[in-house]
Amino acid sequence: MDSLVQAIREQGVILPGGFLKVDGLVNHQLLPRLTREMGVRFAQHFAPLRPNKVLTIEVSGIAPAIAAAMELDVPMVYARKKKPLTMKEPAFTASSVSRTKGGNVDLFISSEFLGPDDRVIVIDDFLASGGTLRALTGMIELSGATLLGLGCVVEKEFEKGREHLADLNVPIHTLANIVRMSEAEGIVVVAGQ
Ligand SMILES: O=P(O)(O)OC[C@H]1O[C@H](OP(=O)(O)OP(=O)(O)O)[C@H](O)[C@@H]1O
Ligand SMILES: O=c1[nH]c(=O)c2nc[nH]c2[nH]1
C-alpha cells in the first residue's frame, strides 16, 4: 500500500529495542482516509474467502479491523484484555505478551460472538513475533470457528512472525513491510505481501 509506505517513511521513528513508532497514523492518532484505504485493501484480499467475521484485539487493531469489516459488511469482534462483568460465559481465553507495554495480558472473547458457524479473518496493527496472532488463533480454535486468514497493517519482517505462523496454513497479508531498520540505514520499508 504505497500511501502507507510513504507515511511510514515520513513519520516513522526508530525506537530502541527494534520498535517502530507510527503513533501519528496507527497507534495514537488515526488518519481516516489512510485507515479507510487499509480496510479496502484487506477486504479486496480476503473477500474471495467469504469471511463472515473480522476478529482483532484491543486497542490498536480495532481501527483497521473495523475499516475492513465495513468494506466486507460483516461484524467485527475484538478480544478484550480485561473481562467486563457484561461478558457472557463461557468466554474463550488466551495469554499473550504486550510488546509495547510489557508483561503478560489475558485475552477474553465471549462465546456469544465467536462460534462454530464463523469464518474468521484476523486483522491487527503489527505483525512482529506473531505471538499475539498466535493467541488469537488459539481462541478461534477453542471456539470451533474457522480461521481463513491473517492481515496486519505493518509487518516487521526481521522478527519472523510470518515464519512462526506458517504452520497455520492460512494466507497472511500485510500492507507495509519493514525489511530492516537502523540508525545508519533508516527505515527500509516496502509494500507488504
Ligand atoms: O507479533 P507480536 O510480537 O505479538 O507483536 C504485535 C502486537 O504487539 C502490539 O500489541 P500491544 O499490546 O503492545 O499494543 P496495543 O495495545 O497498542 O495493541 C500490537 O498491537 C500487536 O498486537
Ligand atoms: O507501535 C509498535 N511498534 C512496534 O515496533 C511494534 N512491534 C510490535 N508491536 C508494536 N507496536
From TrEMBL:
Summarize where xanthine binds, as residue positions: 20, 27, 156
Q: Which residues cross the membrane?
A: none
Q: Where in the cell is it found?
A: Cytoplasm
Q: What are the residue boundaries of the Phosphoribosyltransferase domain, all occurrences included?
A: 49-157
Q: Which UniProt keywords apply?
A: Cytoplasm, Glycosyltransferase, Purine salvage, Transferase
Catalytic function, reaction form: XMP + diphosphate = xanthine + 5-phospho-alpha-D-ribose 1-diphosphate
The similarity annotation says: Belongs to the purine/pyrimidine phosphoribosyltransferase family. Xpt subfamily.
* Protein name listed in UniProt: Xanthine phosphoribosyltransferase
Organism per entry: Deinococcus rufus
Upper taxonomic classification of the species? Bacteria, Thermotogati, Deinococcota, Deinococci, Deinococcales
